[in-house]
């Protein structure tokens, strides 16, 4: 872990894959949390925050800031609002979707995931700045994994909160490509932009902190080239990730229920069309692909997560 490289007033809760990392920022005038995890982990999110507030003698949480609105990054918003009456800041492009809680514009129905409704008080506008705890951060656009995602950059300490735009070993699934919208070029442009920043430390959306940014960008570009050279690869990868994510939540599920979820998840049906597979064939293929990759096993009629 590289937590010792963080300046005073920043603490990272490294969560895993079901819930995105949470980044706590605390100072005399502000206490903020960047990203709030998945709703299945919301009680743990509140507990982690409660312990950290007590440790640092902070009275409350002022605001939650979401880098983007995938369910693993904002699923704890409602619970934190209930616990602390905090404000919520979201990317500006998601303003109307959240105000109207428009399930056709938000990703949860499309991806087959859950997110308790929440309200927001402010928006994150790329090019502007935001106070998080003790430091002012630049808000930067980072489309690709999600067209509306932002990343946050602290120039004095050269720290990047990269969300799912850059991990130590890649980046988040390029979801727009699953339903016929551009994403590959946007990922490439975002990687180019990150490379232009002087960055000493990256706090990713998932995984541990890292400092070797050139290596991470090279890994990400290699991964992008692999996926973009054959869009079927991105469709297969995205489908497997979606089922694996759901299985992380379920832990195990009857194969009949798994098939029903696949059949009613729009993003997966889009992936099936991209792969020129009939729905029934796709429903048979996807769990077997996850098993073949070593990410799951079949126990009788139960699909079981292997983590």
Query: How are the strands of the largest sheet arranged?
Result: 1-2-3-4-5-6
Distance from first to last alpha carbon: 21 Å
User: Would you give the CATH topology of the largest domain?
Assistant: Metallo-beta-lactamase, Chain A
Q: Any idea of the CATH class of the largest domain?
A: Alpha Beta
The CATH H-level superfamily of the largest domain is Ribonuclease Z/Hydroxyacylglutathione hydrolase-like
Per DSSP, the total helix count is: 11
| Helix content, binned percent | 25-40%
Rg, Å, rounded: 19 Å
Mean pLDDT: 97
Low-pLDDT stretches are none
Instruction: Name the beta content range.
Output: 15-25%
Would you count the extended β strands for me? 14
Number of domains: 2
The ordered string of helix (H) and strand (E) elements is EEEHEHHEHHEEEEEHEHHEHHHEE
* SS-based class: alpha/beta
Any idea what the CATH architecture of the largest domain is? 4-Layer Sandwich
Biggest pleated-sheet summary: 6 strands, mixed
The best one-word shape is globular
Write up what this structure looks like.
The protein is α/β, with parallel strands linked by helices. It folds into two domains: 3-228, Metallo-beta-lactamase, Chain A (4-Layer Sandwich), CATH 3.60.15; 244-305, no CATH class. The protein has eleven helices and 14 strands. It has helices at residues 42-55, 71-74, 77-84, 95-99, 108-111, 184-196, 213-228, 231-250, 255-263, 266-274, 279-292, and strands at residues 10-13, 22-26, 31-34, 63-65, 87-91, 122-124, 129-132, 135-141, 150-154, 159-163, 201-204, 252-254, 296-299, 302-305. A six-stranded mixed beta sheet has the order 1-2-3-4-5-6, covered by helices on one side. A five-stranded mixed beta sheet has the order 7-8-9-10-11, with no helix packed on it. α1 (42-55) crosses α3 (77-84), α6 (184-196) packs antiparallel against α7 and α8 packs across α11.
């Amino acid at each position: 872990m590289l937590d010792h490289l963080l300046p005073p007033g920043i603490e990272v809760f490294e969560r895993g894959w079901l819930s995105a990392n949470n980044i706590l920022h605390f100072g005399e005038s502000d206490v903020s949390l960047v990203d709030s995890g998945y709703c299945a982990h919301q009680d743990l999110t509140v507990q982690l925050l409660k312990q950290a507030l007590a440790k640092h003698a902070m009275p409350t949480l002022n605001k939650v800031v979401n880098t983007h609105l995938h369910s693993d990054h904002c699923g704890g918003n409602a619970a934190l609002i209930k616990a602390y009456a905090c404000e919520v800041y979201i990317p500006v492009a998601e303003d109307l979707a959240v105000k109207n809680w428009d399930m056709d514009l938000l990703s949860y129905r499309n991806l087959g995931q859950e997110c308790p409704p929440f309200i927001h008080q402010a928006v994150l506008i790329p090019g502007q700045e935001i106070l998080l705890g003790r430091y002012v951060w630049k808000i930067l656009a980072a489309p690709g994994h999600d067209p509306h995602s932002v990343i946050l950059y602290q120039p004095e300490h050269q720290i990047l909160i990269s969300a799912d735009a850059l991990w130590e070993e890649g980046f988040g699934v390029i979801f727009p490509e699953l339903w016929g919208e551009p994403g590959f070029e946007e990922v490439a442009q975002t990687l180019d932009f990150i490379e232009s920043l002087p960055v000493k430390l990256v706090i990713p959306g998932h995984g541990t902190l890292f400092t070797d940014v050139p290596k991470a960008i090279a890994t990400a570009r290699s991964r992008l080239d692999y996926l973009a050279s054959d869009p079927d690869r991105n469709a297969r990868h995205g489908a497997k990730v979606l089922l694996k994510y759901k299985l992380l939540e379920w832990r195990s599920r009857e194969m009949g229920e798994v098939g029903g979820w696949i059949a009613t998840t729009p993003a997966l049906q889009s992936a099936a069309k991209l792969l020129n597979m009939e729905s029934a064939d796709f429903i048979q293929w996807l769990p077997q692909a996850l098993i073949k990759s070593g990410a799951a096993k079949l126990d009788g009629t139960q699909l079981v997560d292997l983590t």
